[in-house]
């Protein structure tokens, strides 16, 4: 079963390759959607995929890439949108 979640990642998450690392992890897990930096200093992503893959991605997001310092995640359940790939938005 596919689900869609939007996640806002708080902490030191910009300028530490967070978006690129998130895209790489999503592709590895077969997750589709997007990731972007927000003007408030957070990283926001919408991810869609198998429940297990989404759970694994959430666990990864709690740590992020090596240079990141994730403080917490704000997770919202969303409607499925049938994304075809995982993009970095600017």
Q: What would you note in describing this structure?
A:
The protein has helices at 18-29, 51-61, and strands at 2-12, 32-37, 43-50, 69-78, 86-88. With 90 residues, it is an alpha+beta fold. The protein has one domain: 2-Layer Sandwich (Alpha-Beta Plaits). Strands 4-1-3-2-5 form a five-stranded mixed sheet. A hairpin with a 5-residue loop joins strand 2 and strand 3. The longest helix is centred in the first third of the chain and has 12 residues, at 18-29. The radius of gyration is 12 Å and the shape is globular. The N and C termini lie far apart (30 Å). The model has no long low-confidence stretch (mean pLDDT 97).
Biggest beta sheet attributes: 5 strands, mixed
Q: What is the typical, i.e. mean, pLDDT?
A: 97
In the CATH hierarchy, what is the architecture at level 2? Answer: 2-Layer Sandwich
Cα end-to-end separation: 30 Å
How much β-strand is present in the residues? Answer: 35-45%
How do the helices and strands follow one another from N- to C-terminus? EHEEHEE
From the helix content, strand content and strand pairing, which structural class follows?
alpha+beta
Helix content: 25-40%
Indicate the CATH topology.
Alpha-Beta Plaits
By DSSP, the count of extended strands is 5
Q: Tell me, briefly, the overall form.
A: globular
Lateral strand order in the biggest sheet: 4-1-3-2-5
């Amino acid at each position: 079963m596919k689900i869609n979640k939007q996640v806002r990642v708080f902490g030191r998450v910009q300028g530490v390759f967070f978006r690129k690392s998130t895209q790489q992890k999503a592709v590895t897990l077969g997750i589709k959607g997007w990731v972007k930096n927000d003007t408030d200093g957070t990283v926001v992503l919408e991810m869609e995929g198998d429940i297990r893959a989404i759970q694994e991605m959430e666990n990864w997001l709690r740590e992020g890439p090596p240079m990141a310092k994730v403080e917490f995640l704000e997770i919202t359940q969303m409607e499925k949108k049938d994304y075809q790939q995982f993009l970095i938005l600017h």
